[in-house]
Amino acid sequence: MAYDWIKALHIVFIASWFAGLFYLPRIYVNLAMETEPAAQQRLLAMARKLYRFMTILMVPALVLGLVLWLHYGMGRGSGWMHAKLAIVLLLVGYHHYCKRLLKQFERGENSRSHVWYRWFNELPVLGMFGAVILVVVKPF
Questions:
Q1: Could you give the CA distance from residue 59 to residue 16 in angstroms, rounded to a whole number?
Q2: What is the pTM of this model?
Q3: Which domain range does residue 61 map to?
Q4: Which candidate, 69, 85, 88, places its Cα nearest to that of 6?
């Protein structure tokens, strides 16, 4: 029964974390297009708050995933789990790169266009697609 609760909570925290991973770069799209200082400050405040909140959501998502893997043995020794863990590491890197981009916006050093951020925003979709396929289909 504890396994089911841990798995359910893991899914909830992952979905919540991904909501932030999807939305934060959308704020960056708007920041890259905005020229009004007051609007830029409002968008920066939104981005800061969202980044903090999604970091809080990422931590239990990762911890619960580790519990499922290490304590309950979910996917232990399976090729699909190794591939999923690689995707998770890439997503954590993406998360931290979002922080770096936020710092550049805060310093007024953004040099990328809104189009770049629109493409950047699609990367977590690919990560989620890959991770879900690996967990559900277990292709190898």
A1: 11
A2: 0.95
A3: 2-137
A4: 69
36-44: long-range pairs with CB below 8 Å, 24+: 44/102, 44/105, 44/106
- Cβ atoms of 25 and 117 within 8 Å: the answer is yes
Residue 40 to residue 38: CA distance in whole angstroms: 5
Residues counted in the chain: 140
**Coil, helix or strand for 135?**
helix
Domain count within the chain: 1
Q: What is the pLDDT of residues 15-58, one digit of tens each?
A: 999 999 999 999 999 999 999 999 999 999 999 999 999 999 99
User: What torsion, rounded to 10 degrees, do the Cα atoms 77, 6, 133, 75 define?
Assistant: 10
